[in-house]
Specification:
By secondary structure, the chain is α/β, with parallel strands linked by helices. It has one domain (39-62, 81-240): 3-Layer(aba) Sandwich (Rossmann fold). The chain contains eight helices and eight strands; from the N terminus they run αβααβαβαββαβααββ. Bound molecules: S-adenosylmethionine.
């Protein structure tokens, strides 16, 4: 039997139900096993394909050039050195790895995604002793309440059905005083919005209204709610009060 890589000796004890025989064969912890994927729409189907995940790096670096705010975490939501961070919908894991650098060797950054090809890339390029990746569905977070000092999610929530449910779970996963920082593409009346409306929302994408989000976070027990639009993306952050 192969030894468990150091990062997973730190991730496994954090799980609500740690598996007796963790599936680490592909370099990430797979908690969905053979469970079939049910992509939420054509865009998510693409990110779950080998081709989509292969092209994602190009798409992401283009998006980061066009939208400089993509990876810019709000300054008040910076992770503490030694802290624990969860990155929901981590894709190829480069932002998770950057979070790992910020928290330092005594901290821990966990990237969570459903896409096997994305996680395979993340495992290959971004895993380290304090950065690890988990295959799980964001709608069923595998961590108990009060586990993380920071929960981030960049450009993923718009793809997940019932995003309100994911947000509420993300808030619960925070320690009191912990921060949530989320970025979602949110065109005002841009092309995507129009296409999505015309196609009867067959794109599977959700769009977010800053006022609705603020209300939702408020009722999830979050304080210091702040929403900020940077071009075609909306960042929002909030702090768990208790
Ligand atoms: C556009 S990519 C963003 C990746 C990365 N956060 C970034 O900023 O480059 C969206 C990611 O969300 C993931 N995703 C979609 N639905 C998910 C779900 N239900 N649970 C976890 N991850 C999901 C996709 O597989 C994909 O890797």
């Amino acid at each position: 039997m192969r030894p468990t890589p150091p990062v997973f000796t730190r991730v496994l004890p954090l799980l609500t139900s740690p598996p007796e025989q963790p599936d680490l064969d592909r370099g990430y912890l797979d908690l969905l096993g053979g469970r079939p994927e049910a992509p939420s729409g054509p865009i998510q189907s693409f990110w779950e394909s080998g081709l989509g995940s292969g092209l994602y790096d190009h798409a992401q670096s283009l998006a980061r050039r066009v939208i400089p705010g993509w990876f810019r975490l709000p300054s008040r939501a910076r992770p503490p050195v030694g802290g624990r961070v969860l990155d929901i919908g981590c894709g190829p894991g480069n932002f998770t790895a950057a979070l790992g650098n910020r928290v330092g060797p005594s901290g821990l950054a966990v990237g969570l995604d459903v896409s096997r090809p994305m996680l395979a890339r993340a495992a290959r390029t971004a895993t380290s002793d304090n950065v690890g990746f988990v295959r799980a569905d964001a709608r069923e977070l595998p961590f108990p309440d009060g586990t993380f000092d920071l929960v981030t999610s960049l450009a993923a929530l718009q793809l997940i059905p019932e995003p309100e449910q994911v947000l509420a779970a993300a808030c619960r996963a925070l320690v009191p005083g912990g921060w949530l920082a989320v970025m979602v593409p949110t065109p005002h009346d841009g092309m995507l919005h129009v296409v999505s409306r015309l196609s009867g929302n067959r794109t599977g994408l959700s769009f977010f209204d800053p006022d609705d989000l603020a209300e939702q976070l408020d009722s999830a027990g979050m304080g210091a709610v702040h929403t900020h639009r940077r071009g075609p993306v909306l960042w929002f952050s909030a702090q768990r009060t208790a």
